[in-house]
Amino acid sequence: MFKLEKPQKVCQIGNFKIGGQYGENPPLLISSMFHNGDKILESRKEGKWDKAKAEEYVKKQEELEEMTGIPAITAMVANSKEEMAGYVDWFTSISDRPFAIDMWVEKPRLEAAEYIAGKGLQDRLLYNSITPWDKDIPGQVARLKELGVKHVIVQAYDVADPSPKGRLTSFNKMMENIPEGTFETILVDTSVMNLPAIAFSGVANKIVKEATGWPCGVASSNGTYMWKEARNLFGAEGFAAMNASGQGCSALFWSDFIFYGPIVAAPKMFPAVVSGSVMAAAMGFYETGKLPSNPNHPFFKFFNDFAQKLTEGGEQSLPEHD
Length: 322
Fold this sequence. Notes:
Elements: E1 10-13, E2 16-19, E3 28-33, E4 41-43, E5 48-49, H1 51-68, E6 72-77, H2 81-94, E7 99-102, H3 106-118, E8 125-130, H4 137-147, E9 151-155, H5 164-175, E10 185-189, H6 198-212, E11 216-218, H7 220-226, H8 229-250, E12 257-262, H9 266-288, H10 298-311
Parallel strand pairs: 3-6, 3-12, 6-7, 7-8, 8-9, 9-10, 10-11, 11-12
Antiparallel strand pairs: 1-2, 4-5
């Protein structure tokens, strides 16, 4: 049910492995900073933010990444190259981790990539993203290749066919503009529309992975945060529980990466995704007889005794495998 027949690509950004067979690697978590409504952002126009609080959030995410084995990248939101340059300079002064840019409009997004390449940071950049709505996809791809950008997210969504299979159609159209070998990493964002549709994006993940082998993922936070009535219905604690559940469930739906929303929520999101990741690893074992090859997987960090019993055949009744 969960195993994929096609060989799966495993991409590497820094020390992070993304992709592979179901349950093989935990999903890459991508957080958001400097988005609209971010309380650390004091003035987007003047380029002012609470640097101390922002660094605190980044270091907490790194601490959780090391503790859980779940890789994490910070995506910085900006409207212009100049604004993004300030964030990138700050981030690279406090962290050696990879990072992502999050910019909706093609022109300033590409200008930001040019700035980052000029600083020799191409290896650390996750370019977010190449979209079906960009005006000049071939030109954008060619320029990114010239700049030496290695890691990109490609958004897959077909307005004419919003079904899970429509995501594959959209991705195939996008790949007509991306010659083989252009990028080392292509992460496919299967476009979440609302909370229940996270399930459809999960199905799309499986369809695209089975057809292409590329890592797929979801912005499940788009679905959870779009359910605005949840705060009134359940209160702040209830919303936090729903939000964490949405991210944890996403880890079960063939998600190689998850946009989990504001970085301030990291202490809730990491445990949620640990839960989904270890269950995915167990399901992968049930179907293949193999535990994750990634020694840093949360399955081994938190349930190594159970892993030993599984490999020794001393825990639960499992089917025989070749």
